[in-house]
Design goal:
Layout: H1 5-11, E1 37-39, H2 61-64, E2 68-73, E3 78-79, E4 82-83, H3 84-90, E5 94-100, E6 118-119, E7 126-129, H4 140-143, E8 148-152, H5 163-177, E9 180-184, H6 220-229, E10 240-244, E11 253-255, H7 268-277, E12 297-300, E13 308-310, E14 328-332, H8 338-344, H9 349-358, H10 368-373, H11 377-383, H12 388-406, E15 424-425, H13 427-431, E16 438-439, E17 443-446, E18 459-461, E19 463-471, E20 474-478, E21 481-485, E22 489-493, E23 498-504, E24 509-516, H14 517-524, H15 528-539, E25 542-544, H16 547-565, H17 572-596, H18 604-619, H19 626-633, H20 637-648, H21 652-670, H22 675-681, H23 687-698, H24 702-707
Helix pairs in contact: 5-6, 14-17, 15-17, 15-18, 16-17, 18-20, 18-21, 19-20, 22-23
Length: about 700
Amino acid sequence: MFKIILGLITAVVASLHATPAQAAQKANETDATTSATYVLSTPAKAQKAVVTGAERTSEYLKLLKGKRVALFSNQTGVVGNKHVLDVLLENKVNVVTIFSPEHGFRGKADAGEKVSSSVDEKTGVNIYSLYGVKGGAPDDAEMQKFDVLVSDIQDVGLRFYTYYVTMERLMDRCAEYGKKMIVLDRPNPNGMYVDGPLLNMKYKSGVGSLPIPVVHGMTLGELALMINGEGWLKEGRKCDLKVVKCLNYNHQTRYRLPVIPSPNLPNMTSIYLYPSLCYFEATDVSLGRGTDKPFQQFGHPDMKGYAYSFTPESREGAKNPPQLGHTCYGRDLSQMSDDEIIDKKLDLTYLIEAYRAVNTGDKFFTSFFEKLIGVDWVRTMIEEGKSADEIRARWMPDVEKFKKQRKPYLLYKEKTSCDMIMRDITVNDLLKVFDGPHIDDDILMVDDFRRLPLSQETARMECLLLGVCLEGEARYTVDAVEHVVHPNDIIIISHNQKTGKAWLSPDCRGLGLVLKYDFFHEIIKNIHEMSSLFIFARFHPVYTLLPEETERIKTYVSMIKRKIENTQHHFRRETVQSLIASMIYDLSNALYRSQEAGKGATTSAERIFAEFMKLVEDNFREQRKMSWYGEQLNITPKYLYGVVKQVSHRTPTDWIDDYVTLEIKLLLKNSTYSIKEIAQALHFSSQSFLGKYFKDRVGVSPKDYRKS
């Protein structure tokens, strides 16, 4: 579990910083102006500009001396304000041929348009078009013309973006003929995440040739290494491969392309939306080809009731777009922020929305859809009325397996949850980096965190974590105290505790739940046995279950998961709360056993805090003065303040206010009492005083909270 929880929780907090340069530039390196970059959040230090592989000329020019060189590139192969072809020729490299991909060497042809071989007008070098030719690879005569193949092309990180397919075919031919291939690496603008189903190889095609997710998150250099390492070339061949890495790049970096990669991806918004909108290519819904906003909008003549509309027309790069000349009604996504698009990752909600709006049933999709999405079950789930979240849940296990599979081939630091700047951890925050079974932002099921990265940063819990270790060992800190976790150990990290410095053994495995504080408090409210358990756990976050108790916890978690996933159950939230309550009652046995054995011995300060919390539970409706609680405990208010602050890192007033605020929320939400009646029940001097008290702590008035 503790790669589980600890990996998740502690990882979510580290600041986002650019990776330092991996090597200093050599003095004689003839690098040109670097392309522009930007990062996910404002860094503490100034970001160093990304240096592409092509800009690191001293790393590869020496390898080309005296060689006949073939170049695989297009308009994206830039070095500052020059093309890589010009840089090679200026440095006396003998470039004998150019291999061009889909859209041609200058990148102006339509998607899918056959591009004829020709001669580059500027340099006179022969261009051999690989797109539309049989096998998509050079013929035997072309392979005999060169000694080394240089690949420099900007990819956008999608399985159905065809440049990597061409690279793979070139690798295979180079391996077959004993030719060296040098990949001048470039950043992946969608390299921040991995998402989508893995390709079922029965759907292998020109828009998907490898068993990888739709969004693979790798650079072409990394992918080339993986192709070699996984034996994906024909007959298990290995290509003599060298990758010239980028500098100052990692998978946290958001890289702005200096040149558009293809005619219908004119800006970064289209590139970020591409993973979510490309599936419209397998329908007659327009995704904006033939407009100023390709891959930034979608619509159809039959999508009535939408205020927004557009009309595709014939233009360069989209000579005959879907719905040419027809008014399409739909949605404009061009104003979405980069953060919003990236947070959604591969988002099928747009496709599902259009499917339901057009309402043509199984006629909506063409057979091309399976080639794009890579599997047959996504279409089925959409037709069955499943949500985008339900569909994503099915492919996520494969995504996690792939992330582990690709790890040996990564050249750059991975993007992890620790790249988010986040001091306080909530369920909602965790849902942004882990898509597990959940109910809104109340509860998140954590059932497989073995591949989640760890962080040494400290995070403050604004939720509660409950988990059990099944295998292996873990070490971590809670409130600066180190704890060791073994199989059958329970861990509880409570609200407002601080955790970090996690270490896991390779075989560590477990299960866990992350609960929103209000959601959890509804469960234990007025149940002393439960409250005592979690007060005890605040001082002793780890204690041991008997093997049969661990099995019962696994059963509970399995039942909770099934209830969470049953979205049609009208009372699923309440049912889940009841199951958690039952599980906690069972855990109480281990608590008492631990206390009786002397393992749970507490200090006097801890005992005072426990007594204080019990008093608060019983009396917060009538008593909110710290002096009253001090009197009941026979200590001064000052001493009570110091003890509670020492043990819990919060003041007594903070705890009292938590209970009062939650009670107001519950009464506003679940009762018909007027606000005046609630004020009277909780012994406020007036309705207006309650209103001010509540707004100061929640940010909205009681009236607005009730409406919401």
